[in-house]
Design a protein that fits this description.
Blueprint lengths: L2 H11 L6 E8 L2 E3 L4 E9 L2 H5 L12 E5 L3 E8 L4 E15 L3 E5 L3 E4 L2 E4 L3 E6 L4 H4 E8 L2 E3 L4 E10 L3 E2 L1 E3 L5 E3 L1 E4 L9 E4 L9 E7 L4 E9 L3 E2 L2 E14 L3 E5 L2 E16 L4 E14 L2 E6 L14 E10 L3 E3 L4 E11 L16 E11 L2 E10 L11 E6 L6 E6 L6 E3 L45 H29 L2 H7 L1 H10 L4 H13 L11 H7 L4 H18 L8 H12 L11 H9 L8 H11 L3 H11 L7 H13 L3 H11 L7 H13 L9 H11 L3 H21 L4 H27 L2 E5 L3 E4 L11 E4 L3 E7 L3 E6 L2 E6 L3 E4 L1
Parallel strand pairs: 2-10, 12-26, 17-19, 27-32, 28-34
Antiparallel strand pairs: 1-3, 3-6, 4-6, 5-6, 7-10, 8-9, 11-13, 13-22, 14-24, 15-16, 17-24, 18-22, 19-20, 20-22, 21-22, 23-26, 24-25, 27-29, 29-31, 30-31, 32-33, 35-38, 35-41, 36-37, 38-39, 39-40
Length: 840
């Protein structure tokens, strides 16, 4: 570096708060789609502290490019100019530029934080071109059908691709052991197409399965495709592949299927020398080719309101419906299966099936089940004929929106009634176990709910939310502090046995009696006794703060005052006063001291903290609950439910009120709200067997299933739900206390140390649950409406993102006066506030 350059650097370092911005790139300035380019922003700072104050720049939005700001990295350099050391500090931000299409692009100027202000960049240009060679050796087509659809009418996208057999495509192995070809489809929209929902891909022939690579611009994963034999490219044979994807448009307007690129790596036949750390080796040269499929624009038309039937089953496409029975001869009270099949092209994954049961004449519906696959929805109704007069199955009515060009209207169809021969029961034989007329006794918890819980009996059962995180942390730290304090005390006692001061304190009375027997004055013997007991010098007893010192060691006020007066009298007598301390009084003081247990200056108060942290609060029964119980016993379930809701408005709430509210709602047939009330009751009655039976009964009637997941995770969740928050905290404290005792006192023993580690593991899992997982877990909501539609925005008139049935559980992300924000799986949206009851 020249002297002039050194001088420039020195002048720059002398100007605090000033910086310099350097922009390198784009590199390269011309890329082959879909390769990426990079820009590097370098900011030079005067000092390391100024460097730490720099913030990341805000990138502009450029149509056709995706800009991603990378992780910054800093550099520090030192330069000695012959007189002093010059420090140079800088930070660099890499920006990845991923093109979404071919063309010339300009990244406009944007501000970058530099020093105490900002500096603008210059406009940056990038050219994205196509590979002109790839089309000679490969092909890639994307066929979209249809290109004019209605909302929720499926769009099928078929990909056909191939590579000339004259090229040797690379073959690789993934980390999971699966092999794949070096053919990459660059299509971020396959997983996230704006304005459409992805539908399950069509099944592939496993015998012809071949893995390629799918890139979404950020990561890569295997893409299963189907190998095709009939590939041809420019009159030559090609290795060909195909796969399909389907989407459901969620809103009206123009839906763009973006341009997509296929890249393939092939060996050129050449080799090159690669130098390793020690050895050199030859490897084959690989070249990447690209071919392209142009963008396709699909017109999405909204469903018309005119002629829309109610209820509308949400089917969009072209369908047919037919029915069949599993047998045409059946006895009264036996079962006959009516199978209704809906076939065709459309949104078979999301359409609703007809509902039977309301208008059935001569039959009783035992239940139904669905089977869905591409192009077919099959629902089986299990029917029981009630009389021999029934001659045919009921006609099943259904509707859909027909998208056939030239038709494009709502169509209502129905199945043809099928003949069935119903045989009467033999004379003397009755209809047994007929739904609604079972002869067996009703069993609470199986066929019916358990009775109310009497609120006037026993202590109230409020919910027990955990203390604040700060209190929890203090309580969980307390066992370790206690173990440390006990270890310190134990070691202190061991040291005291060898301590001269300790021996001096324990032998204070004997020393006092020997001093009196040897003729020493009672005052001097008492002063020496007190000094021995307090572990201080004799001169420290004759001091103004003697009374405070005695009280700090646990001596009661009366004895402390008596000692102070005796010492003062002895001092006065020694220096010419009268009233010398008598032997009897000195012995009385010593006897009083011997009955007093002196305390150490520091005493832990961990038990008090635990009591404060786990203390609960009880409530009494209110008037609304009394009126509710009376109404329930009288069979007025609507009034009982209203009164129980009023009783639930008190704080804190006796969770048995929610139990009884659930019973009142169940008796009215409002199963969704009954389920929500039972779930609220479970926050206090975690292990109540009757409540668990009622919950299981309501869930079975709502056909919600058991919601079982992974066995180990499900077992942990069940264990967590079986304990209240405060019970979890108490168990966690006990585990920490046991682990602390084992690890602190048994650290030198391997077996005890291992046992302490085993106990510490569940303690730490519970700690994470209490301090991290539980506070961040979203509230649960129960869908109480017959059917709730989740929309992308909090307003009416939008197509549903997800449709929820009564009793479904959702995560509640936010609440407003009219709408509740929920999450279902990976999807978020809004439902009307009265459609979901939040479990608090």
């Amino acid at each position: 570096m020249s002297v002039f350059a050194v001088l420039l650097v020195a002048l720059w370092l002398q100007a605090p708060g000033q910086g310099r911005l350097r922009v390198v790139g784009p590199q390269p300035a011309m890329v082959v789609f879909p390769q990426t380019s990079q820009v590097v922003l370098r900011v030079d700072a005067g000092s390391a502290s100024e460097l730490r104050q720099l913030t990341a720049p805000k990138l502009p939005v450029v149509d056709g490019l995706r800009l991603t700001l990378g992780k910054p990295y800093s550099q520090q350099q030192s330069l000695f100019d012959g007189r002093r050391m010059i420090e140079s500090n800088s930070v660099q931000w890499p920006i990845e530029i991923a093109p979404l299409r071919v063309g010339d692009f300009t990244i406009p100027a944007f501000d970058v934080p530099v020093g105490s202000g900002t500096e603008p960049t210059q406009p940056l240009t990038l050219r994205v071109v196509k590979d002109i060679e790839g089309g000679q050796f490969g092909y890639f087509t994307m066929r979209v059908e249809p290109q004019r659809v209605y909302v929720h009418e499926p769009i099928r996208v078929r990909f056909d691709l191939g590579v000339d057999q004259s090229l040797q495509v690379t073959e690789n192995q993934a980390s999971n052991g699966e092999r794949y070809l070096g053919i990459e489809i660059s299509a971020p929209w396959l997983a996230d197409l704006d304005g459409a929902l992805p539908v399950d891909a069509a099944a592939l022939d496993r015998r012809r399965l071949m893995n390629l690579v799918h890139s979404d611009g950020r990561s890569k994963r295997l893409l299963p495709t189907e190998f095709a034999d009939d590939g041809q490219h420019r009159g030559r044979r090609a290795n060909s592949f195909r796969f399909e994807r389907s989407f459901l448009p969620s809103r009206a307007g123009k839906l763009t299927i973006p341009a997509t690129a296929m890249g393939f790596d092939a060996y050129t036949g050449e080799t090159r020398v690669v130098q390793d750390f020690v050895f050199s080796r030859r490897e084959q040269v690989v070249k990447t080719y690209y071919v392209y499929a142009p963008a396709v624009v699909v017109e999405v038309v909204p469903l018309p309101d005119q002629g829309k039937p109610s209820p509308f089953y949400g089917a969009v496409g072209r369908f047919t419906i037919d029915a069949r029975v599993d047998k045409d001869r059946v006895k009264v009270g036996s079962s006959v299966k009516l199978i209704v099949a809906i076939r065709g092209e459309g949104n078979t994954e999301f359409l609703q099936v007809p509902e039977l049961g309301k208008d059935l004449v001569g039959f009783h519906l035992l239940g139904s089940k669905e089977k869905r696959e591409r192009g077919l929805v099959e629902v089986t109704y299990d029917l029981t004929p009630l009389t021999p007069e029934v001659k045919r199955t009921p006609a099943v009515s259904w509707n859909y929106f027909d998208t056939t060009p030239g038709v494009e209207r709502y169509v209502t169809v129905a199945t043809t009634p099928l003949p069935v021969n119903v045989e009467a029961l033999p004379v003397g034989e009755g209809l047994k176990a007929l739904p609604g007329d079972e002869a067996k006794a009703v069993v609470p918890g199986v066929d019916d709910i358990f009775d109310m819980q009497a609120l006037g009996e026993g202590a109230p059962v409020p919910a027990s939310p955990p203390p604040a995180r700060r209190v929890i942390a203090m309580l969980l730290l307390a066992p370790w502090l206690a173990a440390g304090a006990l270890m310190f005390a134990w070691r202190a006692r061991a040291r005291s046995r060898a301590d001269i001061a300790g021996q001096r304190e324990r032998g204070a009375r004997k020393t006092f009696l020997r001093a009196l027997a040897a003729g020493q004055t009672p005052f001097d013997a008492l002063v020496h006794y007190l000094a021995d007991r307090l572990a201080v010098a004799d001169a420290a007893i004759i001091a103004p703060e003697l009374g405070d010192r005695l009280r700090a060691r646990g001596v009661d006020d009366a004895l402390a005052d008596d000692v102070v007066r005796a010492v003062e009298a002895g001092v006065a007598a020694r220096y010419g006063g009268s009233g010398a301390l008598s032997r009897e009084r000195a012995e009385q003081i010593v006897d009083g001291f011997e009955r007093t247990r002196l305390q150490t200056p520091a005493v832990a108060a961990l038990v008090v903290m635990l009591a404060l942290g786990l203390a609960g609060q009880a409530t009494g029964q209110n008037d609304a609950a009394v009126r509710a119980e009376a109404a329930y016993r009288a069979g007025d379930y609507a009034t009982a439910a209203a009164e129980f809701k009023a009783a639930a408005a008190t704080s804190p709430v006796d969770r048995r009120v929610y139990y009884n509210l659930g019973n009142a709602l169940y008796r009215q047939g409002d199963l969704g709200r009954a389920l929500a009330a039972y779930e609220k009751a479970r926050l206090g009655l975690t292990r109540d067997q009757k409540l668990a039976a009622n919950l299981a009964l309501v869930r079975s009637k709502l056909e919600l299933g058991s919601a079982e997941g992974e066995p180990f995770v499900q077992a942990l969740a069940s264990l967590r739900d079986a304990l209240t928050a405060r019970e979890q905290l108490a168990v966690c404290i006990a585990l920490h206390l046991l682990a602390a005792g084992l690890l602190v006192f048994g650290w030198r023993r391997g077996v005890v140390r291992v046992l302490g580690g085993v106990v510490l593991l569940p303690a730490m899992l519970l700690t994470i649950e209490l301090l991290v997982l539980a506070p961040s877990r979203a509230a649960r909501g129960i869908v109480v409406a017959a059917r709730a539609e989740v929309t992308a925005e909090p307003r009416a008139g939008l197509e549903a993102v997800v449709k929820l049935r009564r009793g479904a559980t959702v995560e509640v992300l936010g609440e407003g006066p009219s709408w509740t924000k929920v999450r279902v799986g990976a999807r978020e949206g809004y439902v009307p506030v009265d459609a979901v009851d939040v479990v608090r």
